Amino acid sequence: MTQKNDLRQDTTAFQAPILGKSIVQVVTSFGGFFATCAVMYLANAVSVWLALALAPLAAGFLVRIFIIQHDCGHMAFFRGRRANDVLGFACSLLTLAPYRSWRRQHAGHHGGWNDLDRRDRGADIYSSCLTVAEYRALPSWRRLWYRTTRHPIVANVLVPPLVFIGLYRFPFDTPKAWRQERRAVFVTDLALVAMFGGLGLLLGFGAVAAVQIPVMIAASIIGVFLFSVQHRGDTVVWARHKDWDSISASLQSSSYLRLPAGLQWFTGNIGFHHVHHLNLRIPNYRLQECHEAIPALRGVVPLSLGDGFRAVRSVLWDEESGRMVTLRQTDAIRHGDRA
């Protein structure tokens, strides 16, 4: 355990925010998003298809803004809590994810990710799974529901826009005891009504919908894909609580998604997720620096982008073989084939 603690201690050299880099990231992310949206509004007056062609670029900037919101939620982007909270709330008006409630929900995820005995903490269909034995024990209708909701098209294409645009407008998964977080959801909604209402009066509600909805759909799909592969894949490990510790889980139960330089920039280095779990206070722009400086982190097996697309199908943990498996592989396991 001493060596593991030394590993975490080594990462503390990278957790201090660098004000200049934080400001540059805010300027480039928000500036790029607003500039692209402005061009989309101009293009929309000529052709809706011309505007839609720019939606992926605007979505890329919006994903980067969400990474900033994520850092603010971990108090990692600035040194002061107030600065993080103010910027986090500002980000939420673009990402549509209520900052305060999302932050607390996400903290639950970090309390015991990939711990089979603590799947009730911050868990959702992307950061949790059933074991093969649990899946087999379900009645047929629940197995069908599990298969349907975990299908890549449903989970990674159809559900994300519904969550960000619709469900996040209500404290649908926020416990009633979290009164401040529940109120914050409605405060965010009021701010969104004022912001988009004013924009609609200025530019026309049809134009606003034609620009913002496609961007939000694309950004939510990209963002959820990134989240869903962070604890998936053949090399990812789930463990019972007695065998679980946060440092081992950082290296074995959090993925390292290695992306091309351009995609890494737009996704705010979140592919270095093993580093993030090892130390939540490291700003996204220092994750790669930390990864490259510490040999134990460089030893984590990376996922390629192609691996990431395949990883979203790994939705069950097979305790007997000690690996994540797909539903198709589960059907093979049922017939005694564990190859």
TrEMBL record:
Domain Fatty acid desaturase: 48-296
InterPro entries in the cross-refs: FA_desaturase_dom, Fatty_acid_desaturase
UniProt GO MF annotations: oxidoreductase activity, acting on paired donors, with oxidation of a pair of donors resulting in the reduction of molecular oxygen to two molecules of water
GO biological process, one term: lipid metabolic process
GO cellular component: membrane
Residues passing through the membrane, by range: 48-66, 153-172, 184-205, 211-229
Keyword line: Membrane, Transmembrane, Transmembrane helix
Pfam families: FA_desaturase
PANTHER family documented for this protein: FATTY ACID DESATURASE, FATTY ACID DESATURASE 2
Name of protein: Fatty acid desaturase
Species, as recorded: Roseospira marina
